Amino acid sequence: MPEDIRADTTLPSVFAQLTPSPARRVRALTLVFHPDVARIGERVLWQGVSRKAAVLGRQSPVFTRPGSASGAPLADPYISRQALRIQFHKEGVTLTPLPGACRCRFNGEWAQEAREFSAADLRRGIVLQLAHSVVLLLRELPASAGASSSPAASVADTDDELCGSSDYMQGLRRDIARVAACGLDVLIRGETGSGKELVARALHAQSERAVGPLVPVNMAAIPAGVAAAVLFGSARGAFTGAERNSVGYFQQAEGGSLFLDEVGDTPEEVQPQLLRALQEREVQPVGGPLRKVDVRIISATDAALDEPDSRFRSALRHRLASAEIRVAPLREHPEDIGELLCLFLQRACAETGSISMLPTSSEDPLRIARWAELFYHCQRHAWPGNVRELSNCARQLVLHAEDGLPPALVWQEVAEGVADTPAAEPASAPVELGDEALRALLKQERYEVSAAARRAGMSRQALYRRLPSLGLRLAAQVPDVELDEALARAGQDVTAAARALRVSAIALRSRLAHRTVARAGMDSAD
Fold first, then answer.
1. What is the pLDDT of residues 424-443, one digit of tens each?
2. Order of strands, edge to edge, in the sheet holding 84-89?
3. pLDDT band at 7 (very low <50, low <70, confident <90, very high)
4. What pLDDT sits at residue 106?
5. DSSP state, 146?
6. Contact indicator for 13, 323 with CB cutoff of 8 Å
7. Tens digit of pLDDT for each residue in 241-299?
8. Residue 29 counted as domain residue
9. Residue 306 in contact with residue 317, Cβ under 8 Å?
10. 453-463 pLDDT, tens per residue?
């Protein structure tokens, strides 16, 4: 390859989107809730348009998990042997409750007569409930192009948010495995709360660099004036206050991966320095010599980097994206909501020391009905905060649980705020943390706003606005006198001082670095 081509950093990325988007489409009927929660995620697939209607009932059809050769019918005693007729046609689908059968609900309405749904309805997804006990999602989706041949993990066996039996999640896991093995720098793109950091951690964990460190950096939190020192380090005596050599993030990630989160918010002044470090794989600490670094760069953003008015350098954008993975919002793979909700409920129970809340098929029918109702409403919600919002909802349900069930108040809020919200339209979060819970969460996350916002299922901006009502503040708002006193009491331990001041240690270090640079500038002027 000619040298000039190799040097062209604006070439398109090697992988724009690894998972192909085939034109063929299938209709999938996915189990969102079943009294046997291990079956959540199983499905039935129909290809093409058949003149023969499908009949849904207790003993047919057979539901299987992707990658599994065996399956089973719904087999729920409260569902009629023949409950619902499903007739696909070019304009959409007709759903007909059969005479004398168990009750059926379609997108929020209990139906006694046939209902017509358009092709657009079918693409968005139609939520069904049979009797009091089973919830399903009927949806048209792209045909899988090479589904995994290995069985998908069950709800009980999966321990991270990358679980899910949908074709999309199977494809995402394959993409992660392929990109992790290739060793190229990766740009992860997706909406806030969609799971970009989880993908980054999976990429590192599945790569040859897994034995090395994964160093996360919030690029939006680095002031332009101290970016060089924070990213690349500084030498002793490089400026006033530099009493020892400082190791930057690039050097901290030596032999491993450097995760540049929110890279789209990188200050313009920092971008040329970052581009050079990525191109040459060498950094120059402030006041020190050049040195080579062995790191893999994984970056993530929800910013529109390719827009004409974007201030993000195209050369840097393409240098970051030797490989690129797009993380879809939850509304594009709603088939996974049931499995994810189960996972988050189990995790929240473990975090709080609670007993498992999830029901068993032998439980009282009224308890089963209450759980089915919750899953039904959650499936109807748009989840604008994506996976993060769903996780937060599950946590609140566990925190306020009554007798192993969602509490009446919170459950009612979910039912009223989430019920019958079209999946294609935005809706408000079903549960919002109160001041006491949010204050405890911030303390648990060491007052790191980004981490606390992710767990709370809210934007950083929204959490910033809540800080005054919580009696908290930003590191930048602490008066110098109070800051110096806290540092003196902590023996100049920044982490301990931040904990005492109830502010972010990362933000406090950035402020101190910025103050040092400012004082150095004043000394030079003198």
1. 333 333 545 677 777 888 88
2. 54-56, 84-89, 92-97, 115-118
3. very low
4. 95
5. S
6. yes
7. 555 667 889 989 999 999 999 998 888 888 888 898 899 898 877 777 788 999 999 99
8. yes
9. yes
10. 777 777 777 78
Q: Which two tokens stand for residue 195?
A: 């799971």
20 CB-near residues (< 8 Å, 6+ apart): 145
The per-residue pLDDT for 424 is 37
Residues 40 and 126 in one domain: yes
Task: Indicate the residue type of 85.
Answer: R
In whole angstroms, what is the distance from residue 301 CA to residue 317 CA? 11
128/240 same-domain check: no
Asked which of 72-76, 376-380, 425-429, 433-437 is least confident by mean pLDDT, the reply is 425-429
What does the alpha-carbon distance between residue 35 and residue 358 come to, in Å, rounded to a whole number?
Answer: 9
Separation between Cα atoms, residue 417 and residue 409, nearest integer Å: 12
Q: Are residues 137 and 194 in the same domain?
A: no
Amino acid occupying residue 380: R
Over the chain, what is the mean pLDDT? 81
Given a contact cutoff of 8 angstroms between Cβ atoms, the answer to whether 133 and 79 are in contact is yes
Q: Are residues 30 and 122 in the same domain?
A: yes
Cβ atoms of 228 and 276 closer than 8 Å: no
Q: How far apart are CA 208 and CA 423, in angstroms?
A: 40
pLDDT at 514: 67
Q: Which domain holds residue 513?
A: 473-526
